[in-house]
Fold this protein.
Amino acid sequence: MRATVTAALLVLFSFTVAWAETAGAPAKQAKPPVGEILGFHVGMPQGEVVKRLLEMGELVERKAEPAGKELEMKQLWNLRDPRFASLIVRFDSHDKLKWITAYVREGGPSQLYSDVGDTTIAKLAGRYIYTWKLEARDGKPASVLTARGTSPERFSSMSLVAAPPPRTATAIPDSLLR
């Protein structure tokens, strides 16, 4: 009985000490999400992207697709990367990288959501689909990063896309307000 009481007091004391150490500690900062995929970020010039991709793999498919009144170039690349098997890039009509999606290599090293960013600050867009909004910084435009998977820890693809322009309020004519 005496040993049980002593053990219980020791456990209670350890919890009290642990709580006291963390109570005054500053809150842990959330890990900011990565702002690029394999070194590519939204807004990069097409020439720079293609030059780097030629070093990383081979072009499999290239086609122009309509996007509104303009054409945008879309390319599929197979990679020689142990983590990612392939990726798709799309360039806008100004030959800037508009979006990129990388697909994890089957049998390759696991790619964890926690390596992309803190999931507690991400928007959960579906089961195992996490989305982070990235502010414009360091000359890179605002973008949206999405990681998708079929497990709570590992993702199977991740995408980076230019953020849509902010919406502006439309003035309502006075005649409609009466």
